[in-house]
Amino acid sequence: MSLVPHNPQAGQVHIGLGDRSYDIRIATGLMSNADAWLGLPKAAAALIVTNETVAPLYLAQLQAALQPHYAKVHVCTLPDGEAYKTWESLQLIFDVLLGQACDRKTVLFALGGGVVGDITGFAAACYMRGVPFVQVPTTLLAQVDSSVGGKTAINHPLGKNMVGAFYQPERVLCDLSSLNTLPPRELSAGLAEVIKYGPIADMAFLDWIEQHLSDLLARDPQALAHAVQRSCEIKAWVVGQDEREGGIRAILNFGHTFGHAIEAGLGFGVWLHGEAVGCGMVMAAHLSQRLGLVDAAFTQRLTALISRAGLPIVGPDLGAQAYLHHMRVDKKAEAGDIRFVLIDKPGSAVVRGAPDALVAEVIQACCR
Amino acid sequence: MSLVPHNPQAGQVHIGLGDRSYDIRIATGLMSNADAWLGLPKAAAALIVTNETVAPLYLAQLQAALQPHYAKVHVCTLPDGEAYKTWESLQLIFDVLLGQACDRKTVLFALGGGVVGDITGFAAACYMRGVPFVQVPTTLLAQVDSSVGGKTAINHPLGKNMVGAFYQPERVLCDLSSLNTLPPRELSAGLAEVIKYGPIADMAFLDWIEQHLSDLLARDPQALAHAVQRSCEIKAWVVGQDEREGGIRAILNFGHTFGHAIEAGLGFGVWLHGEAVGCGMVMAAHLSQRLGLVDAAFTQRLTALISRAGLPIVGPDLGAQAYLHHMRVDKKAEAGDIRFVLIDKPGSAVVRGAPDALVAEVIQACCR
């Protein structure tokens, strides 16, 4: 049994962080439900940050939902993609805020995927030293992972997410309808983060995913609702214990150390983040197995599920040295020592180092 | 009597902010005192951020002090001046940190005045979502005000300190010896912030400043030690009650609303921040008087002291409309309403609005 409590009241997950606590609401058609927008901080103005892909689909809906609550609803539309998760995009947000004389009560709304959420959250953390913000994630990856937990950041030419803040939103609103417009490749990328929660915290959830994977790929609303809710519950449980990643929170990075090396090695954006994490989980399972923590059956089972989800299970052939280099400059490394998130028994993760030679063996076995 | 406790143990002030608490240490020759550097967070690397003016004077001393504690002591030297409190300078810091593969335990040291302290603090707040930092202020203004209390920021082309964070240092080390190299104009600018603490919190301290102003201008070590300590005590008392400026902390901005308009109207850097604050206090006292909160004798007394400290007491003739405009886009304004810090009786401040017509009268009376 998993240690993580399940809320039978579907559609709501609470993140308990003292005076920074908030709720995640999960439902179909949430954006057009007036109740979803009640009780947010009052202000003269709101700013919606979105991107060129999402704006034509959902911006009008969100503007209509916010207009009863804010005298002015400004918009900042960024170019789409990881390549724009930069200081320049952040500056575009500040330009609108200052150009419109927005004061320090202004509420920011992040309408989009992980990039929009991370950059908007960081803008909110910094503008006048902090204004409130709300996450309205429109991708599966953002709904189950990046919009929850307060990690915000932009990229630096020398590293991903290197400049950022821990800054919690006022609320996360996951409208499951928005997943209907998601390209299949991005749906699969989101499933990687859903699958992640099984091996690190809840093998019963992994069972459930295995049984309902075709429903998830077919975007069955009930299946998606459960997948998002259970993922958020597990994330909330972890983040509630360790907001600033001093300890247990690092287990959420299962698959991310190898995944980060794939993204950095190929150039960010070549593989989607979720694709790199999917393949990274396969590699981390192999490393766990070679360290004697899990058996071959576990590795095979996880690999099969990741493959069925439409994700790559073979890493690009960058060479072991390139992998090791990229993992050493990862944020999680300490004084050059790579910290891996490994499965120490199914449903439980551990953060530890591993001998370079063993890691190189895994890279050799998993990449071509 | 002031409500602010005085620590008879000279040379130490505690900022009580729960798990973000820290000490300010104040002494002559502190940088070369090995004890001052004990007990800071352990790390493989430190980074000293300084500027081209301060580096030739104190960098070697600080490097020598840190070398026993950190295997690597990196340096980032910025150009000097408010004009460089920008994203570009912040980027230079991140370039060094990432170029040297500094991990998220790396400790940053801000060696310089307010600009270096604010920008280094903000870099520490953002780098890998937060690394520890230490303030080593070398100007009077930074020692009595900007290095204490965790306000960090950079400027935006459309406004000063518009992008930043509340982020507390691990320690503040005020070496009074560094004030010996301070240009007289900057000494006076620092005295503006020292004088500020009297009218808002402690009239006995104002008496003391009046009696010891010539000692302070002559850089008498004992007089400077008391001025820095008492200023820090008052700031610590205020910040301890209201870290994120939800209420009482705003009183520390006495003189800053008019001062901000002077700086913005003339172009930042034409007047030093402390000069603008000095003149701004004169204007705020006049406004307090016109609102019937203080008598003419108080305004005259404060004006005389500010003048004796070598600070301007007549504002530049920007026109009332320009003053009002700049004050409306100040961070402290709410939905365009200007919030003034006024003296409601000597030794006590209040934050409130005032009729535009009355403000215009004050501007007319105080500027030419």
What labels would you give this structure?
homodimer; 368 residues; alpha/beta; Rossmann fold; Dehydroquinate synthase-like, alpha domain; 2 domains; two-stranded antiparallel ribbon; 12 helices
Give an account of the 3D structure.
Two copies of one chain form a homodimer. With 368 residues, chain A is of the alpha/beta class. The first copy, chain A, folds into two domains: 169 residues, 3-Layer(aba) Sandwich (Rossmann fold), CATH 3.40.50.1970; 183 residues, Dehydroquinate synthase-like - alpha domain (Dehydroquinate synthase-like, alpha domain, Up-down Bundle). Chain A is built from twelve helices and eleven strands. A seven-stranded mixed sheet of chain A has the order 1-2-9-6-5-3-4, sandwiched between helices. In chain A, helix 1 links the parallel strand 3 and strand 4. In chain A, helix 8 packs across helix 9 and helix 11 packs across helix 12. The first copy, chain A, is globular. Chains A and B meet through helix 2, strand 7 and strand 8 of A and helix 2, strand 7 and strand 8 of B.
